[in-house]
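Researcher: Please translate sequence to structure tokens.
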Amino acid sequence: MSLMSVSEVAEYLGVQEIRVERLERESLLVARDKDAEGKPLFDSEDVRKYKEFAERLGGI
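Model: Translation complete:
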């Protein structure tokens, strides 16, 4: 399991960091851990699956 920060997820998905934080708040992307600043960290495999799913639905 490789963990990604909010900024890494935002870059991978092509969205702003605030959008990633909202996805986490709404439980659409589940954080696996928190960093030293208390920001969520995401499993890279979960992020990849979310991106594929969102693209099938018409975009992120």
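Researcher: Any highlights?
Model: The CA atoms of residues 52 and 58 lie 10 Å apart.
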